[in-house]
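Ligand: zinc ion. Inputs:
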Amino acid sequence: MVGQEKFQGTVVKAYGKFFAVALDDSERILLSTPKGALKRDRRGTDLVAVGDRVTVIDVGDNEGRIEHIAPRKNVLARLARHTRDVEQILVANPDQAVFVFSVRDPEPHPRMLDRFLVLAESRQLHARVVVNKHDLDAPGAQDPFAAHRAIYPFHDISVKSATGLEGLRDALHGQVSVVAGPSGVGKSSLINRLVPDLDQATALISDATGKGKHTTTAAQLFRLDPKSFIADTPGIRALALQGVAPEELPACFPEFRTYLNSCRFSDCTHVHEPGCAIREAVAAGLISEVRHASYVSLRQGLDDDQDRL
Ligand code: GDP
Ligand code: ZN
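Predicted complex:
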């Protein structure tokens, strides 16, 4: 029947009740609404979210009806402030997180990187780090991320002089990557550089803006190539350590893991206890002092939060 063809696609943007769905096997985007019966299936979470894999029926006029939403592999979500049991999804089905910093303008911020890395670890997301603006390198400058390079994959790039971008592109291929970082480091410039026809994609999608309210905290997915998406997620910073229990924090530092069962006390916090295998590893130079100091600071923040509950 005309206008009843089914397609697989990915939700790339939400506008109130409307969702822009990028079809797998074409450049087309269908502005779609979920069919009524789906509304019964999901409670306590968003019915449809950016990143959802869906089946849509083309109803003509570049509009679609969402017939099926695939179960989510995982989500980046926050609990809504007043209704604690309802989650608000920033991105569904992310594969990896890409944290962007710059050599300077603004200055690198290793502590902020550690917070982001904990967020990724606590959600079982692979993390990689981009350091942009290498065209501004000062000779002899110390590397503020030296400790992190032993633990996570790094991409040293300059969007301005177009260096390091091919390796990064390879690392993004076939993935849904969530981008985050402080403002001014060059995230938009990077996305502009990586996404072919960004203006065209944005124009296609913004045709829909008249049709519903655009929620600014929600993510938008940009298609890098048919199988790869990159998500700009303004809300991710606010997520911070939400939902991370103090005792879960040590395992969010991958280089701590081999030592975790060797402390004298089974409830060791690895902050001040004698016989702490983590602190011994720091003293022996096996764990970086900078990372341990970050851990202590985050741990104290979490413990304070717990005390207030
Ligand atoms: P965002 O806030 O992270 O999205 O950062 P923007 O993409 O808006 O970039 C912030 C500023 O940094 C802009 O003035 C860009 O032109 C500049 N910028 C981006 N990438 C580079 C780079 O590789 N080198 C230099 N020198 N400047 C850059
Ligand atoms: Zn310990």
